[in-house]
Amino acid sequence: MYLTKEEELILAGEYGYALQKAMEILVALGDIYGAERLIPIKSAQIAGVSYKNLGEAGIEFLRDFVNAGAKVSVYTTLNPAGIGDDEFMEKQREVLELYRAMGIEVTSTCTPYYGANLPKFGDHLAWSESSAVSFANSIIGARTNREGGPSSLASAIVGKTPEYGLHLDENRKATVKVKVEAKVKTFVDYSALGYHLGKALGNDVPYITGLKPESLDYLKELGASMAATGSIALYHVEGETPEYRNAISDGIETVTVEETDLRAVRESFSDDWSEIDMILIGCPHASLMEIKEIAELLRMRGRPLKIPLFITASRAVKALADSLGYTETIERYNGRIIADSCFVVSPIKGWYNGIATNSGKSAFYFRSFGFSVRLDDAERLIKEAP
Amino acid sequence: MKLKGRKVVGGKAEGELIVSQKPLSFLGGVDPETGIVTDAESDIRGQSIAGKILAFPRGKGSTVGSYVIYALKKNGKAPKAIIVGEAETIVATGAIIAGIPMVQGIDVSKLKSGTRVRVDADAGEVEVEEG
To answer: What is the pLDDT of residues A309-365, one digit of tens each?
Structure first.
């Protein structure tokens, strides 16, 4: 890989240990994936925030990195934190303080684009958090590989990323055409479609036809579910996403999605209400529109829920919900909006053992943690719940 | 027998091989306190990688696994060198921050646990002692 004079000096350690290590990571990744050079990035989004995932090992590394003077050089936001017992929360606070000490905006959301960190078309980024990567690439048309926590941190510090993968035009073309013949209309239909496609395709770039999403949130969920069950980091939707026009080339394979495919997903997450002890909305973090809808659904239900309803959202969106009165409404019916946290990365097994959700991503993870799972639209969940 | 691969992290090491023929996850798969493999799907489950030359086809699992490799090093339980068939982000990043010599592009199916090897990561070479 070609390095500028300054990059060579960083690699030689002239600018200190933290920058040197960060540069070593980028150069190694560039070599592994065949990049020719490093390119500047506009922003970074860092995963590896919850203490459940990081553990002592991660804290130790972050502490050493902070002590070595690690500072980010581009605008950088964070993934959600975890929720646990007192001891856990103390460790969690330490993690956030370490990231803050590096100059990172401690926003802690998987939807930075609903607040602090909204990229524009064509921006090069180094984002981890698979759902945000999918959103940035597919819905905005920004360019990021599916980074891991450490590699996005390295990029944030150097302000650059190796130019390979989805940073290059040729890798953003569709590798498979997906013809959706099933009826895909509501939020949970998009969840089920994403869940199915992630499993069926793995790491393809799908070009999807036959969709008319009513809301941006539906596409957000489609991408998040695909990225959870598979490793899809970019998809195109005909007539909807910004790069679909040049995405298709002759001779790629076509797969068809039928009603039975989506029904199979929904039937695999149809555990009985007697096994469900919480409802979870907001994976990825809910938009204000989603929260408003929940508040209205609860009002229509007219009586409080017997099991708690949790809506996870970014602090930015929760602040809006607070000031517009939605939070108060939701709390009246035994609901809560939890800001800047994520149950998927929280040690909550035992506190709760069964979840009802509209998110294919959550369904996938909680099933893998041994939870009972019921997947359906928020409308039906709130109507049917005890 | 001399196998030729490519450098990921420079350095030299010599020691006893421990070989997993399956992809290895570090987060939840290797105990950072002891260096013992706990990955239920691993063919070297229950064995220690501490102080050995660790070979496996490729990494898998969470990217936070890089930090487990770093913790292994700090706890004195890291492998002396890492040999992989195919390098990917998790293990490469872990080896860099931990400063563990690492070579990629080696056909791991030719390697067997218990044999002695010399790793020259700068040259991308792995020399297996015969016998």
So the answer is: 999 999 999 999 999 999 999 999 999 999 999 998 888 888 999 999 999 999 998
Task: Tell me the nearest-neighbour CA distance from A15 into chain B, angstroms.
Answer: 16
Identify whether B66 is a catalytic site residue: no
Report the gap between the CA of A62 and the closest CA in chain B (Å).
9
DSSP tally for chain A: helices H, then strands E: 14, 14
Considering only the beta carbons, identify the residue of B32, B71, B89 that sits closest to A151.
B89
Output b/e per residue, B6-35; b: 16+ Cβ within 10 A: bbbbebebebebbbbbbbbbbbbbbbbeeb
Q: Shortest CA distance to B114 belongs to which of B52, B57, B35, B56?
A: B52
B66 close contact with A: CB closer than 8 A: yes
Distance in angstroms (rounded) separating the CA atoms of residues A63 and A337: 31
Q: Do A57 and B32 touch (CB under 8 A)?
A: yes
What is the ipTM score, two decimals?
Answer: 0.82
Rg, Å, chain B Cα set: 13
| Residue B25 forms contact with A (CB below 8 Å) | no
